[in-house]
Amino acid sequence: MLYTLLFIILAYLLGSIPFGKIIGFHHGIDIQKSGSGNIGFANCLRVLGWKPAIIVLLGDVLKGFLPVYFSLSLLPGQGATFVALSAVVGHVFPIWLKFKGGKGIATGLGVLLALNTPLAITSILIWIIFLSFTRLNSLASISMICCLPILTAFIAQQLLSLSLVLLMIGMWTHRKNIYNLLNHREKRLF
């Protein structure tokens, strides 16, 4: 129990590392005051360009992947699932940024890569398909998280509860994007 609690705390702190803010600062830009104000991949791509955005994406994926990967062999039962959720919550509500973080998609993918790689790869393919047809990152992300519980039911039933929580978090973090999509105001990624 003590190890589980320690992993949950460490996953939250690791999830809270704001790679978008750090990389933006390195380029002399406050990413929270530029573009959409989000610290994630899409806003970094628009504001900073491809190379910095890829670094942010990799950082956000790794901070979900690493704590879950290491907890899988060290924690009993569903411990890794709680660690996974903690990493995503850390990204969405980071202690370092007064609890105003990103949307949790890349960190959620990192978590899925550690828990069930086929599920993560299938989710990424759905995101790529929707993005290639619409060029709307938010719509691709929303579509991916909406498909996640369905995919989980076929690929990894033991992760169904986690997928439903990730769906709720993702829909909440994309509430402004959903409003913009419904009113045809959402910006395209490219």
Automatic annotation (TrEMBL):
EC number: 2.3.1.275
Catalytic activity as recorded in UniProt: an acyl phosphate + sn-glycerol 3-phosphate = a 1-acyl-sn-glycero-3-phosphate + phosphate
Key words, A-Z: Acyltransferase, Cell membrane, Lipid biosynthesis, Lipid metabolism, Membrane, Phospholipid biosynthesis, Phospholipid metabolism, Transferase, Transmembrane, Transmembrane helix
Residues spanning the membrane: 6-24, 53-72, 78-97, 109-130, 142-169
Highest taxon listed in the record's lineage: Bacteria
GO BP, sorted A to Z: phospholipid biosynthetic process
Name of one Pfam family that matches: G3P_acyltransf
Compartments where found: Cell membrane
Membrane topology of this protein: Multi-pass membrane protein
Single GO term (MF): acyl-phosphate glycerol-3-phosphate acyltransferase activity
Pathway annotation from the record: Lipid metabolism; phospholipid metabolism
InterPro entries (alphabetical): G3P_acylTferase_PlsY (IPR003811)
GO CC annotation, single: plasma membrane
HAMAP family in UniProt: PlsY
Description of how the protein assembles with itself and partners: Probably interacts with PlsX.
Primary role: Catalyzes the transfer of an acyl group from acyl-phosphate (acyl-PO(4)) to glycerol-3-phosphate (G3P) to form lysophosphatidic acid (LPA). This enzyme utilizes acyl-phosphate as fatty acyl donor, but not acyl-CoA or acyl-ACP.
Family as reported in the entry's similarity comment: Belongs to the PlsY family.
Name of this chain's protein: Glycerol-3-phosphate acyltransferase
Organism in which the protein naturally occurs: Candidatus Wildermuthbacteria bacterium RIFCSPHIGHO2_12_FULL_40_12
Lineage of origin: Bacteria, Candidatus Wildermuthiibacteriota
